[in-house]
Amino acid sequence: MTNNKPKVEGRSDEAEGPDGGWGWVLVGALFVSTSLVFGLMRSLGVFFVEFVQYFEESAQAISWISSTGLAAQQFFSPLGAALCNAYDARVVVMTGGILAGLGLILASQATCLVHLYLTMGLISGLGWGLIFTPMVATVMANFTRRRTLVLGLAFSSIGLSSFAFNPLFQMLVEMYAWRGALLILGGLSLNIVPCGALILPQRHSKVPAKVDSESRSSRASLLNRISSYLELSLLLERPYITYTLAVTLLNVGYFVPYFHLVAHSRQAGFSEYQAAFVMSAAGATDILGRVVSGWFSDLRHFRLIHLLTMWTTLAGVFIMLLPVSSLSGSYIALIGTSLLYGFSSGALTSLVFAVVPMIVGVERMMGGLGLLQLIESGAGLLGTPMSGLLKDITGNYIASFMVAGSFVILGTLTMATLPHYFSCTDPMPPQRRLLDDKDGSDDMFPLMMCGRLEALPAVAPPTSCPTQ
To answer: Which of 104, 229, 255, 458 might form a disulfide with 82, Cβ 3.0–4.6 angstroms?
Structure first.
């Protein structure tokens, strides 16, 4: 598995691509925005118990609130990617920040679960979908050699916010009830707007094409343009489909502990603050896992896909061990397992995204990330309600965590079917096939750099994989 791939003649590491500059400012923006998206989403388990008591509904019905938000975030990610390819990433992210805050503010006035589905689920989820993929793709385009490390640093905010948000949200609920707490969270989410403003305005380099005015306005031309913005051609490539299926299976079980571990800890007999601290402890090691994994991955001793399968396997095992550790009523055992789960789940996160440009190429990364989020949205919608249903049937969360961990491990096994998986080196990612090659106009293609679209030669000397 050791990567001894020789460097391409005449190209140094520094020449492989950008590695810093304004990109570090964007890393800070991604740090804040991800904490206010996924860090907040992970901490909504504190509201789970409050919603069950207030609305007097089943665990399965309440689980649909968080699942709808997660699924909407992933479902609308291709929309965010397409809008960025067509217009301006800065405006798209800022709009997403407004919608994310608006959904939570409106949720504070909810009178039934349907209101929460539409506000916390659909409106905030739409906003999250317009934020995450454009921010990640913009940061990744600004780094080559340290791409996994900067993603680990930026995504460490999710663990940090999970550590801080759980007890904070519990305190807000006790002081202002759940309505007041959601109103405050809505205002907090509006801080994503200035994060989006830090993205430099895009300068689109349109690919010239010799077509007559009739074909320019034709339906086929419109469909080709939409397909290009969404990168739908990726759906015909086996490596991308295999990887997407693996991540989708992983997504079924990955978020279950963040929505149900607090409720499970309460059911096991621990106090409200003890239960909230379980997630805070997992969030602390989540931070460490992201940074350590990013640093170690960028040493290039092993292929990223091999490291990813190792961490996903460990995450699946520790998810299954979470309820087992509390059967004896030992709080120390529960904390210990949560710490191990937090580290492994944090370690795999940045790798999931860093592998994408190695499969599809940097120039198709925005669309690849968007489609990945769309396809896995169904799994996000299924995971927590299925877990809640198993709890309603069995009376506890043991089966819920066992099934969730099994899906994560099944995703690991699917990754092992990727072409060249057992090779010691990474295959070259495919290049974008340009639409028009009749007039020599296919010697340029767009690549997002520093929030702008820069034109690069299509016939470039072969290089090693961007992250390897």
So the answer is: 229
d(CA 256, CA 387): 7
Tell me how far apart the alpha carbons of residues 234 and 444 are, in angstroms, rounded to a whole number: 20
The whole-angstrom separation of Cα 314 and Cα 323 is 16
The whole-model pTM stands at 0.69
pLDDT in tens, 44-56: 778 887 888 888 8
Burial of 336 (0-12, 13-18, 19+ CB in 10 A): middle
CA distance 234 to 344: 29
Whether residue 234 contacts residue 296, with contact meaning beta carbons closer than 8 Å, is answered with: no
